[in-house]
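Pasting two entries for a bug report.
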Amino acid sequence: MKALLVLILCASLAGNFYQYQKAKDGRRPESSTIGAPIVMRTRGGLLEVSAISATEQFEATDAHSFLRIHLGSTVGQIKVPAVYRYHIELAPEWKIRFRNKTFVVIAPAVQPTLPVAIDTKGIRQQSTGIWSVVTGSAVLDKILHSISPGLNAKAATPAYIRLQREAARSTVKEFVAKWLITQAQWKAYSAYPIQVYFADEPIQVLRTEDSPVD
């Protein structure tokens, strides 16, 4: 039994070394477009308001056994540099009130731009465990398939929405300030301060108070 395990281990090491050398000596991979590119219009347009840069870590463990005897585990780990971008839609109605010499703007809720962008050049992956030379590739492959869904889910979490909110608020404030000076009826008021809220914030009282500009 031990001799068989040693033989498998040596064969795996030899195979991995061959693949490493083959990749090292090969040409740089080339890309090509399969089929005609499809161009899709963003109806109404989007305003990008913020971004979060973070290195995310994904892990998975594969336990090995034979005849109910635990033979160790393979642990895979992948670190991914990710950029979460957020936007608001321009098509929905934006509510603007003028209260106490201040413009109060209620903008649509911020949404994550999906899929989350990743920098493949910065990806770092490793597998550990006595059987990693045999099963490490499969574990890492399983992790790779979970990265995009995992990042997309994290982008929409309340924690990340809160993290980017103030940056988004500043962007919308700048956008509204530039827009106001183009409106003839509000041009005279464009020097007044602007307060920005998002539709998913607890601002119910502001929704019902309508004080238009005179």
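Entry 2 (this is the one that rendered wrong in the viewer):
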Amino acid sequence: MPPTANAVFGARLPVAERYAEFLATAGVERGLLGPREGARLWERHLVNSAVLVELLPGTGDVIDVGSGAGLPGIPLAILRPELSVTLVEPMQRRTAFLEECVSLLELENVSVVRGRAEDLAGEIAADVVVARAVAPLDRLLRWTLPLVRPGGQVLAIKGAKVAEELTALGLSTEPGRQVPRRALRTLGVETVELVCVGDEIVDPPATVVRATRSGR
């Protein structure tokens, strides 16, 4: 466990440790994480997910789309018990894992929904939808924006291909807020922003695309 774990989770570190242990055992055994991920579990997965908390509101509803092993939703729920977090995952074996995990960690602010994001519009909605390593940005926004309340946001943790994905949508790769082209505005995107979080905690910091839905 790196020193950054304590810096991020603070008093909630014991809960995060139980989650890490469950990921390193049951998560690997059931194929939710690769066998080599155990050695970099904290920095690559838990801390990288947890720093997204900087962009979340103090209260409200959060949906984690394509939650998989619970990333980033479970670290965020651990850190913010005042948030209501819904983990959305289409695969039954993964939802079973998530339900076990929620029970083990006694996360009363977390629920698990089996389904695809694109099929759940009108059934669930949140102030913020988060996603990590789910799909290219154009497809992800089509799936997630219908789940975001007017004025809410999609927060997508992105990796090395973020510049390529932004360029494909006609967006700047420079950090800062920008008004998207018509194709995204038709989806309801009001602004798009590339931000870095955890820059004083993790190296490199996590890269996040923040898309704000129109308030109408």
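Dev reply: Rendering is fixed now. As a check, the viewer should reflect this: The first helix runs from residue 3 to 9.
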